[in-house]
Amino acid sequence: MHTSDVMLDIRNLVVEYATVDGVVHAVNDISLSVKRQRCMGLVGETGAGKTSTALAVMNLIPTPPGVIRRGSILVNGYNVLRMKDTEMDAVRGKEVAMIFQDPMTALNPVLTIGSQIAESILLHEKVSGAEAEKRAMNMLEMVGIKGTRANDYPHQLSGGMKQRVVIAIALCCNPHLLIADEPTTALDVTIQAQVLELIDELRENYKTSMLLITHDLGIVGDMCDEVSVMYAGRIVESGTVKDVFTDTRHPYTEGLFNSLPNINNRAAQLTPIPGLMPDPTDLPPGCAFSPRCRYARSKCRERVPEAKWIGDTHMVACIAYEDPGFRIERSKR
Length: 333
Hints:
The chain has helices at 50-57, 85-91, 103-106, 113-124, 129-142, 159-171, 189-206, 217-223, 241-246, 251-258; strands at residues 6-19, 22-35, 39-43, 66-75, 78-79, 96-99, 177-181, 209-214, 226-231, 234-240, 308-309, 315-316.
């Protein structure tokens, strides 16, 4: 038994990919932790490094071209980066499970959905094939699909049902940590809400810790206890949802909030963040956000900002905070 209250502990993680265009700096020295029975939201634009972080936790970075240069990842006390393949087989699904982004490609098209759930159960539990099939049907019922459909193939299901099957596979062995990588991206809006509600309900029932990867701040506000904001492979701000939502400190986080529609004022104009995410093979010197930041100063382009704690739970990585009088203000719309 592990007495620590931290389920996932990532320290100084660096992930790179070698390509013909150069080295992609996907994850650049990030550290974050997820407490037991808590939900951490990992937020950022496409290309920020969120999925690479998740794959590193699962020890599934494709090699080549990917490589974990340094860092440590502890899942329930186990250092997954030091494990052999056979050891990781026992950890994936039992200690940590992942709901992948696209349910269309996450399932094997030539196996029935029941057999795919049962396969995970047989891998981790000492049960008979008949018992595994029975539990697979029960899991389908739990995620809102009739157990009699266990003999169906993925192509016979809708997108929302496929995602429910993926959730059933992830939770069938009651993992301690669940990673959900933008689990509603491929679904329509009404189904998105149902799937998110299901994930949250099952997480509460199973007392599971969760790392929720998303670009939707509304989802974070509804489901998460803590949030980390990621930009160009780095964590730029983190804290409780209350910290980040009501006391926004990093200019990038400010830009994310200012680019959201104002439902109380339909005439209000959006305030988009200027420019684009930098090329991960050619990151700018200093702070990677400085070319897009309206507060940027010359020193912002000279060195990478260090993490600064501005409270017991609130962290920001911005050189401007070396000036004690610096504050940001969200645009009034």
